[in-house]
């Protein structure tokens, strides 16, 4: 794409036309990548759409100097990995409760735990919540979060540690919070 850096700057200033050019240029390639990865058209569509929504809503915070396609491809790849991990956790969960013969009660317990985790995340301070969602829910690496938000990696580490501690203290130790995070990843927003 010609003059991508200039278009990105325009998009950061709120130019919808510049954003739309990125969407038209890269949407199909990203969709094909996602559908090949997750083997589900609807999920691939959601993943790509969410990546573009993230790009637009966080455009002012993103401090990226490389190719926008590479940035979006990495976002889609991470979302695909999270989607697959989420599927595996859900399958393992269902198999466990079906083996126990407690599917009905298990579903209610799972839903209650999910709601407690969501409430705990909502109680985090706004910046901490944003960092936590990017790391734990969307699967970005600490360095990617730091780069996207224009903060230090140590700040990201500190905020993630605080958030995990806070969420775990509110949720309790009945179940590994990380497993719940994967389950929440496609449902939180």
Automatic annotation (TrEMBL):
InterPro entries: RNA_pol_sigma-70-like, RNA_pol_sigma-70_dom, RNA_pol_sigma70_bacteroid, RNA_pol_sigma70_r2, RNA_pol_sigma70_r4_t2, RNA_pol_sigma_r2, RNA_pol_sigma_r3/r4-like, WH-like_DNA-bd_sf. Residues 115-166 form the RNA polymerase sigma factor 70 region 4 type domain. Residues 23-87 form the RNA polymerase sigma-70 region domain. Keywords: Sigma factor, Transcription, Transcription regulation. GO terms for molecular function: DNA binding; sigma factor activity. The keyword Lipid metabolism does not apply. GO terms for biological process: DNA-templated transcription initiation. CDD domains: Sigma70_r4 (cd06171). Pfam families: Sigma70_r2, Sigma70_r4_2. The keyword Disulfide bond does not apply. NCBIfam families: Sig70_bacteroi1, sigma70-ECF. Belongs to the sigma-70 factor family. ECF subfamily. This is RNA polymerase sigma-70 factor. It comes from Odoribacter splanchnicus.
């Amino acid at each position: 794409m010609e003059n991508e850096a200039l278009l990105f700057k325009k998009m950061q200033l709120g130019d919808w036309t510049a954003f739309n050019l990125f969407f038209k240029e890269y949407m199909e390639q990203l969709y094909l990548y996602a559908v090949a990865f997750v083997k589900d058209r609807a999920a691939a569509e959601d993943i790509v759409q969410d990546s573009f929504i993230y790009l637009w809503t966080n455009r002012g915070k993103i401090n990226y100097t490389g190719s926008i396609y590479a940035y979006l491809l990495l976002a889609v790849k991470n979302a695909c990995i999270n989607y697959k991990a989420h599927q595996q956790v859900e399958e393992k969960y269902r198999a466990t409760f079906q083996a126990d013969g407690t599917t009905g009660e298990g579903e209610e317990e799972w839903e209650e735990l999910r709601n407690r985790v969501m409430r705990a995340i909502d109680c985090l301070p706004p910046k901490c919540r944003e960092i936590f969602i990017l790391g734990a829910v969307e699967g970005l690496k600490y360095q990617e979060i730091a780069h996207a938000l224009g903060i230090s990696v140590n700040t990201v580490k500190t905020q993630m540690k605080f958030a995990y501690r806070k969420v775990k203290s509110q949720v309790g130790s009945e179940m590994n919070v990380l497993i719940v995070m994967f389950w929440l990843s496609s449902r939180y927003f």
